């Protein structure tokens, strides 16, 4: 039975160095045997269906194919559509986070890194908020992303082990993954 997945490419199309056309990303995913591939804007995010016969580390497979076929290296975090739906369902800042573009979801490359974030919950982040979900951290950046001490603290703790998306993008990806 086929399953729906979401791929989040770290650092793609953010600066000038790692530019990937979404048509190229779709071609890479289709070349790996994935189907119904859809990308969201020019964001380094893709939704795809994988047949049950393709098992193993999808993120590693996609990362390797990107390097080989497009010449761009990127860590790729892959979640199931159900995992992404849970991220949206567990959103802890309803009524607090008034701007989804100032609310970040930090997807952990390794879910075990969640334990490394627990001490951060004890810190005072001023007007910012930090919450830990099952596979993500949620950050409300009240004064904007560049001014967020909570985001800075999370980055110091996990560095390359996390990729962030604003909540507006997360909800769009969830709709795309669920077929709405």
How would you sum up this structure, described in words?
- It is a single chain.
- With 180 residues, this protein is of the alpha+beta class.
- 32% of the residues lie in helices and 24% in strands.
- It contains six helices and eight strands, in the order E-H-E-E-H-E-H-E-H-E-E-H-E-H.
- It has helices spanning 22-31, 58-69, 81-89, 114-117, 149-158, 167-178; strands spanning 3-9, 35-39, 45-50, 76-80, 103-108, 129-132, 136-140, 162-166.
- Strands 2-3-1-4 form a four-stranded antiparallel beta sheet, sandwiched between helices. Strands 6-7-5-8 form a four-stranded antiparallel beta sheet.
- Helix 3 (81-89) crosses helix 6.
- It starts with a strand and ends with a helix.
- 33% of the residues are buried.
- The model has no long low-confidence stretch (mean pLDDT 90).
| Spans where pLDDT lies below 50 across 5 or more residues | none
Report strand order across the widest sheet.
2-3-1-4
Write down the domain tally.
Answer: 2
Alpha-beta content class: alpha+beta
- Helical residues, percent: 25-40%
What is the string of helix and strand elements?
EHEEHEHEHEEHEH
End-to-end gap: 21 Å
Number of strands: 8
Entry summary:
By secondary structure, this protein is α+β, with helices and mostly antiparallel strands. The chain contains six helices and eight strands, in the order βαββαβαβαββαβα.
Keywords:
180 residues, alpha+beta, Alpha-Beta Plaits, 2 domains, four-stranded antiparallel beta sheet, 6 helices, 32% helix, 24% strand
SSE layout and pairing:
Blueprint: E1 3-9, H1 22-31, E2 35-39, E3 45-50, H2 58-69, E4 76-80, H3 81-89, E5 103-108, H4 114-117, E6 129-132, E7 136-140, H5 149-158, E8 162-166, H6 167-178
Antiparallel strand pairs: 1-3, 1-4, 2-3, 5-7, 5-8, 6-7
Helix pairs in contact: 3-6
